[in-house]
Amino acid sequence: MTWIGLGLLSYAIGSLPTAYLFTRYILGQDIRQMGDFNSGAANVFRNVGAKAGVAVGSIDIIKGGLVIVLAMVLVDDTGMEMMAGAAALAGHNFPVHLKFRGGRGAATAVGVLIASVPIIGLPIGALCLVVLYLTHKAIYPLAIFLVAIPVLTYPAGYSVALAVYVVAIPIAVGLSHFLTTRILNPGAHKNMGDTGDSPLPQE
Length: 203
Prior knowledge:
By secondary structure, the protein is an all-alpha fold. Helix content is 68%, strand content 0%. It has nine helices and no strands.
């Protein structure tokens, strides 16, 4: 498979608008017109329901992991695998069929990182689930995950390129958050409430 073909496939998978579809099905409304105007799991959790929010976040994590696994099977090239993860994140954040108004990418990024560096991604992910269960706040496990993965990737034996990649992905999520809450939708952060109480990271 070519770079273009894999990139388009990954973008298409990432652009599956789970938050939008769940909200349309359950409430008949557009999630982008509710809460903080974000098409992501945390906004669904707060404005649609806990079960819907957990389902959306879980599917978004799976999306991110799926594109990496597919890339490993189809091409087995680290560079193309990293590109696939970035394309999935772009698809989630900027889906063409929603006029490029998607989520912020946190859950999809978690899936990408777990699949990219599974030796550390899986145990750290499991640890974060325990922290989430004990605290009921997303901010703590998300912070642990997004800090631990970049710190441990290179010492765990992964390449320098992959170590740089796992730093770039969380940075991209942070920039997406800033772009959507401070520039595209000024004041949206005021409608988030206590985001730490959401069981899944903000997308």
